[in-house]
Design goal:
heterodimer, A: 274 residues, 2 domains, 9 helices, flat, B: 421 residues, Beta Polymerase, domain 2, 3 domains, six-stranded parallel β-sheet, four-stranded antiparallel β-sheet, 10 strands
Amino acid sequence: MFLELVTTFFELALSCYFTAAILGIVELAVGKASVSRAMKVLIALGFVLHTVNVFLRYVVGGHMPIASMHEATSFLTWSIVLIFFIIELKYKISLLGSFVMPGVFILMLSSSVLPRQIKPIDPTLQSYWLWIHTTLAFLGDAAFAVACGIGVMYLVQERFVKSKKLGGLFHRLPSLQMLDDTNYRLLTIGFPLLTLAIITGAVWAEGVWGTFWRWDPKEVWSLITWLFYAMVLHVRTHSGWHGKKSAILSVIGFAAVLFTFFGVNLLLKSLHEF
Amino acid sequence: MNIIVIGLNHKTADVEIRERLAFTPEMLVEGLSSIRGIRGVSEAIILSTCNRVEMYVYANDGVNIAEGIKDFLSRSRSLDRGKLEAALYVHFDDEGVRHIFRVAASLDSMVVGEPQILGQLKAAFDLSLTNKSSGIILNRLMKKAISVGKRVRTQTGIAENAVSIGYAAVELARKIFNNLGNKVFMLLGAGEMAELAARHLTNCGVREVIVANRTYERGCALAKEFSGRAIQFSDFKKELVNTDIVICSTGATNYVVTHDEMAKTMKDRRLKSVFIIDISVPRNIDPDINRIDNVYLYDIDDLKGVIDTNINQRQKEALKASDIIDEEVEGFNKWLQSLDAVPTIVALREMADDIKKDELARLFNKLNTLDERDRKSIEIMANSIVNKLVHPPTVALKEGAEDKDTLISTIRKLYGLNGDR
């Protein structure tokens, strides 16, 4: 009964994100302020419903709701929408929703097809470290996700300017510099979060398993992702690799994030299994 | 009564005829009084710009007055009547109102969405106000036209997107850099178009302006004009390292910046984006540099391509504007029609009141024994008769059926109300 209610909130949030994604694509085609407003209202509504869903799962399960693949994917989606709103409010990047929402919807949809039972968590993992480590990791991943969306926007806009064919989207997309600056800002948010997530994970592992690092596939792939983003930031500050190169790298980087998130669980055996 | 629009524009007349018919500021006042002098004309406004000469007239007849204005034009400008007729267009009433609204909205302009016409229309209106050549109808029409012009510009995209080289350059710069306030701009060479584009850019407030000209003195003069600094032409490659926006227009017949030079410059400026506008013909900058990352090179044809796209876009938006114009023409017509009824009602009322007053005075004169109370009663009765007689035609006029014009003229004829307008 109670689980049904939890599920209902999830379905409603999914529907909101779906409609918002469709409106986002419509907005690309028609460019009407009313469409963009409607999309934002739906995202906000979806986010509230989603928050209720996440909270109820916490109440029922008694632990951070990331114990199953369904929960983890759902929480990642929630984090992305949160970061999206922060960026939207702070920088007012026009059309950002159109580029981020389709991805948000796909993630939420993948979450929806995964088994939804509320699983108990290994008692040894039940501690505040679970909160700290996972929240840092998920917010970091979410920052990289939005950076990827902005990277795609940059590549589209740069295509317009380079090709000299200034279609309708050219006028509505933000300037290259603004996209590049925001992309960089997100990387500088995501990178420290990921760094802290890895450090807190190691400290926590030491407490639970008695060792900081066990070359678990999740750990290895997190390290690869971390090194990749460290390289992106390094070449940017030291060799001026900004703009197109940085945009491409942030798309590739997010692919690595997604592999660390899904691929490791599906293809490799990991202690981080849900 | 009719609204008459009579005029010519860049589409119907070539410049030779346009300049022949144009009104200089001194001629306008005289022109206004000449048109007002034509029998039957009660209001007149003249709009004279380099692309159009138009007269807006409110008169008691359409076709005959239009002929009268044509006579005046052909006579005063000693222009062959046939030639004049071929260039002129004449619109009456609805079509005239629609034409004025379209002009105000810049839909009839050479470049759809251009802003000047609205100011020119306001100036023409102001002149007619100071000369009292326009009255209640044309004043209302002009005010409405100006508001329609504004409405069309804000509610459709006809005024969006650059349609001149200078604006296109600024628009592109803003899409590359967002904020021009911390950018360095270099004018390489000179020339009318380059200077115009440079003026647009510097007006947007770049941080620094550098001028490099083969003739150093000329460079200094330009630098002064743009409050920048002049450098020797041979030094410009060194300065390129710190420059974000370049407008290039030298007389060189070869490339003054080659691909390899630019690639090296980019390395030296740590790949910071640079926007280069090469408006020289033959081109002065190696077109291949557009392939280098973070280098955006536009030549004159590229900019023209951008402008053409924008003009097409504006024309699409102009279609949306037509709906707004239709709506506004209808609104104006409603007002015009209601106006016809009001003076008739007032005249009818006044006539009845006058009769009543005269008759009462005559009666009271004869029966001087009446006391105050009797007089009051008689007055009340007279008022009541007048009111009851006037009421039905007043209602009929106010309701305004389709045959309102006939109704108004019938009532005027029946009660002998003509000759008061």
